[in-house]
Design goal:
The protein is mainly β and 434 residues long. The protein has 2 domains: 83 residues; 339 residues, Methylamine Dehydrogenase, Chain H (7 Propeller), CATH 2.130.10.10. The chain contains 6 helices and 32 strands. The protein has a 5-stranded antiparallel β-sheet with strand order 5-4-3-2-32, with no helix packed on it. Strands 6-7-8-9 form a 4-stranded antiparallel β-sheet, with no helix packed on it. A 4-stranded antiparallel β-sheet has the order 10-11-12-13, with no helix packed on it. A hairpin with a 2-residue loop joins strand 14 and strand 15. The radius of gyration is 23 Å and the shape is globular.
């Protein structure tokens, strides 16, 4: 009798057409098989359901409720399965070689560069290699993705500096063109409105991403290592001479500069006519994007290495004392702070009222916090430390450190694509708004 009751419920809850694009009958059948007396059959069903990810959690919860009253064993099996597809759980991981920097994501492909010569394209659902290309050298920096092309920079080859940018076909990894820079120090490339911007040594470059042709160069002081931020026709880039430069995106002419108290290593964010930059002097500065006039500053109490994120009138930032702050974008007032217990090296990611931030203290800990009050939703820990740049796309969060690359479930709708470090929607406001 209990079997008939659960079956009737599942057929009603999971009827074809209830969720577009998914095989509802197959899902219903798999959930039915969780109550099988055949261990292999129900184990195979659980594995298949788990691979579908957190998107089926609502259906599992409905089946869980139905089973609670009539089938204790089935309920317990669904309970266990729900734990495996819960927010913050591991969807898959990949042994990628030593990683540094962000991945880029579009549709069902994620692209990562490593220091062991290879550039990978992985399937976002399974983590399986779609293709890989031997770059024949170290890649320390951030890739970018645009119009079916993916860009990566080789910084060293055979023990010597070698600043070669590769433009690869995103579908198969073929090299389309290369461009040589006499450097091994770069900020990651950013592509906006058919123009590519990147920094290297004391220069900001604007290039045509279709051909690699140079369009203009801006020379502005010692070591610009931050990735540019492009907003409202302006390019923002920080340098180790303690300045933030604002450059006209079309001409390469300097519009203004702002002097901070220490190095600017992480670049800037821009939103609603304001620029936000953090410095290793511990301050977060809010500037008028038009002329660089300072509106306010906030002292965090520690060095800040990464660019802030700005969403819905709030600024999110943290540094090496482990405190992560939420500030009022209009006045610089601290709304809340959260202690992570380690050093924050990377910008956070934002989606659907949640903020994701990584902290390093002998291990990597990723936190998912409520953006309103900093209440933790979940955390994910690794066994080793490493520079972690969390990237959101779809319902997944991607992060790499040392030799491991992780894909975590979020249960949230993230940006449709994440195509460059400066293309963080919470940093520029120029892509999908999270």
């Amino acid at each position: 009798m209990r079997s008939i009751g659960l079956s009737v419920f599942l057929c009603a809850a999971l009827a074809p057409g209830a969720r577009a694009g998914e095989a509802q009958a197959d899902i219903a059948t798999l959930i039915q098989q969780l109550k099988s007396d055949d261990f292999d059959r129900r184990a195979a069903a659980a594995k298949a359901l788990q691979e579908m990810g957190d998107a089926i959690a609502p259906d599992l919860k409905k089946a869980q409720a139905a089973a609670a009253a009539e089938d204790t064993e089935t309920r317990e099996r669904i309970d266990e399965l729900l734990k495996r597809v819960a927010d913050g759980t591991l969807a898959w991981d990949f042994e990628a070689g030593y990683l540094f920097g962000t991945p880029v994501v579009s549709e069902n492909r994620v692209f990562i560069a490593n220091k062991d010569n290879f550039f990978f394209c992985l399937d976002t659902d399974s983590g399986k290699v779609v293709w890989k290309t031997n770059i024949d050298g170290l890649q320390y920096h951030f890739p970018a993705l645009s119009d079916g092309k993916v860009f990566t920079i080789r910084t060293r080859k055979d023990g010597r500096k070698d600043g070669t940018m590769f433009c690869l076909d995103a579908s198969d990894g073929r090299t389309l063109w290369t461009h040589f820079f006499d450097s091994q120090n770069f900020g990651g490339p950013v592509i906006v409105d058919k123009h590519m911007y990147l920094s290297s040594e004391d220069t900001v470059y604007c290039m045509d991403p279709e051909t690699g042709k140079m369009e203009w160069e801006f020379h502005g002081g010692f070591m610009m290592l931050s990735s540019p931020t492009v907003s409202d026709g302006k390019v923002l880039v920080g340098n180790l001479d303690k300045k933030l430069y604002c450059i006209d995106a079309k001409s390469g002419e300097k519009l203004w500069e702002f002097q901070t108290g220490d190095m600017v290593t992480g670049g800037a964010a821009a939103a609603n006519g304001q620029a936000f930059v953090a410095s290793q002097d511990g301050n977060v500065y809010c500037l008028d994007l038009k002329d660089g006039t300072k509106t306010w500053e906030f002292q965090t109490g520690s060095r800040v290495y990464a660019a802030p994120a700005v969403v819905n009138g709030r600024v999110y930032t943290g540094g090496d004392n482990g405190f992560f702050f939420c500030l009022d974008a209009n006045g610089g007032r601290a709304i809340w702070k959260f202690e992570t217990g380690g050093t924050i090296y990377a910008s956070p990611s934002m989606s659907d009222g949640k903020v994701f931030v990584g902290s390093i203290n002998n291990k990597l800990t990723l936190f998912c916090l409520n953006a309103v009050d900093a209440k933790p939703a979940w955390k994910f820990e690794t066994k080793e430390a490493g520079y972690a740049w969390p990237v959101l796309s779809g319902r997944k969060l991607f992060v790499g450190y040392h030799s491991k690359f992780y894909c975590l479930r979020t249960g949230l709708k993230g940006p449709a694509a994440w195509t460059m470090v400066g293309g963080n929607p919470a940093r520029t406001g120029s892509n999908d708004t999270p």
